[in-house]
């Protein structure tokens, strides 16, 4: 049977989360795998162009992944209202779990430049949080997890939300997971805590 005759496997969200979990699992540290890197983007707030800002950040994340050797292979979301999505990048090369962990730490550092992509008018009225692999990165907004950083979220918790709760409940579940206070915009578009 030639490669052209082999059946292709359609990647589902469940498969992408499972592949990511295997990629992040310390039990696979010594195995050379093409690893799947998940990045979750959460944006909420009181800004008229919130969706446009979130979509622009999503595009920047996809480009950043590609620049670091992880091509887009799928996503969960976006869920709108608040904006929530998980983006999955597949590594171009086989790598050990140790190398993958080092790349995740480096990518976490690279995500900080995304803060500069948020329009100045939006900074005071939105919250932007990323989960790179399992590492939480707080980009903008008060009342987020900044006091608890560095902070990790098990991927299986995000997978659970993607697979077990309704789309309408997903944003609320992620807010709870990230221990975010409710977003209560004031007249000036700032967070009231």
Overview of this structure, please?
With 193 residues, the protein is an alpha+beta fold. The chain has one domain (3-177). The protein contains 6 helices and 5 strands. A hairpin with a 2-residue loop joins strand 4 (126-132) and strand 5 (135-140). The longest helix has 18 residues, at 50-67. The chain is globular, with a radius of gyration of 17 Å. The N and C termini lie far apart (63 Å). Mean pLDDT is 81; it is low at 186-193.
Shape: globular
* Helix segment tally: 6
The H-and-E topology, N to C, reads as HEHEEHHEEHH
Our Rg estimate from Cα atoms comes to 17 Å
Biggest sheet record: 5 strands, antiparallel
The span between the termini is 63 Å
Helix content: 25-40%
| Classification by helices and strands | alpha+beta
Give the strand tally: 5
User: What strand order characterises the main sheet?
Assistant: 2-3-1-4-5
Low confidence ranges: 186-193
The count of domains is 1
List keywords for this structure.
5-stranded antiparallel β-sheet, alpha+beta, 193 residues, disordered C terminus
Q: What's the short story on this structure?
A:
With 193 residues, this protein is an alpha+beta fold. The chain has helices at residues 13-24, 50-67, 97-110, 120-123, 155-164, 167-177, and strands at 36-45, 70-79, 83-91, 126-132, 135-140.
Show the helix and strand layout.
Elements (H helix, E strand, L loop, with lengths): L12 H12 L11 E10 L4 H18 L2 E10 L3 E9 L5 H14 L9 H4 L2 E7 L2 E6 L14 H10 L2 H11 L16
Antiparallel strand pairs: 1-3, 1-4, 2-3, 4-5
Helix pairs in contact: 1-5, 5-6
């Amino acid at each position: 049977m030639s490669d052209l005759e082999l059946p292709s496997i359609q990647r589902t969200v469940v498969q992408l989360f499972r592949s990511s979990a295997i990629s992040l699992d310390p039990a696979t540290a010594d195995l050379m795998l093409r690893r799947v890197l998940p990045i979750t983007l959460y944006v909420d707030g009181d800004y008229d162009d919130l969706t446009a800002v979130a979509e622009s950040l999503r595009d920047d994340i996809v480009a950043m992944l590609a620049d670091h050797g992880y091509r887009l292979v799928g996503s969960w979301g976006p869920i709108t209202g608040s904006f929530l999505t998980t983006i999955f990048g597949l590594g171009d090369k086989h790598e050990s779990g140790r190398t993958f962990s080092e790349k995740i730490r480096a990518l976490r550092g690279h995500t900080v430049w995304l803060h500069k992509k948020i329009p100045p008018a939006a900074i005071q009225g939105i919250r932007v949080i990323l989960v790179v692999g399992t590492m939480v990165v707080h980009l903008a907004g008060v009342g987020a997890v900044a006091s608890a950083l560095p902070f990790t979220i098990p991927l299986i918790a995000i997978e659970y939300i993607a697979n077990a709760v309704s789309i309408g409940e997903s944003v609320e579940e992620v807010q709870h997971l990230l221990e975010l206070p409710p977003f209560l915009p004031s007249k000036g578009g700032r967070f009231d805590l």
